[in-house]
Structure prediction request, 76 residues.
Amino acid sequence: MTWAIQRYFASHPDAADSAQGIARWWLVGEGVEATADEVEAALGVLVQRGVVRAQRMPDGRLIYAWAGVRGAGGTH
Prediction:
């Protein structure tokens, strides 16, 4: 699933969303069905690799965005 998230970011580098939004809107458009928990786990891997950054919003939600790194530990 990390490949699908990276591919989306490669095509939309200014995009940012919550794990739920990524599961509901981004991945469905890529033909991938996943729960928000599965997406959050994949995003955690991408954050550890430095490919994606997470930012906590004032309401407590985590929003994920591209960190500007291409191809760090995976395909895009």
